[in-house]
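note to self — DONT lose this again. spent like an hour looking for the file last time. sequence + predicted structure for the chain T wanted, 262 res
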Amino acid sequence: ADPAGCAALTVTGLAELTGTSEATVVRTARLLGYPGYRDLRLALAGLAAQQQSGRAPAITTDISVDDPIADVVAKLAYDEQQTLADTAAGLDTVQLGAAVTALAGARRTDVYGLGASGLVAQDLTQKLLRIGLIAHAPSDPHLAVTNAVQLRPGDVAIAITHSGSTGDVIEPLRVAFEHGATTVAVTGRPDGPVTQYADHVLTTSTARESELRPAAMSSRTSQLLVVDCLFVGVAQRTYEQAAPALSASYEALAHRHRSGPR
């Protein structure tokens, strides 16, 4: 690996060196979590500077209690970028497209998740609400099941669980599945128990778990990528409804973001 050499190359130069196209280089940078190739070059230049100073962190090792905070930042950033890249590379776009189609036409959507996955469920729900869709993310397991009983064909239920075996997430998905709703599982285990009740499975990737870096940290990152893909896909499909709904929600909240007293 030669971060300094890569950082010195233009997008054209790196494309020629690797025998690919400029578009492939830019796409790879984005898959690694950077907005564009320029940002990747800056990151590589920073890594090269650390290596030259003898302070390059061992970014593929676990975080230790003695790590300087700069190394903690570098290790976490590296792992999260890898998690995003691996999730993007492994995401089944056919399954994703089918889930987007179901969501775009759904009468109602329920999203189930607990703990860190519950936060992701809430994130997707509030996004769907802001484009005018009916969505719920019940945090109480009993409420999730009683909600699922009300679902019918034409509705969608999404279960978010990294392990794929969280009983309180699987149960409402099972109920929704048996009542005819279209079901989606967002999980790190494509062979996990949750998938037996899922019409569509969207697989996430995570960094290796350690004492100071629980799996919930990187699983949340990869889950957020998947739900963002779902949301943007739905917004594209429902653009005529989504665009004015988003504008209305921004306008309704605008005064809360202005500085100074009202």
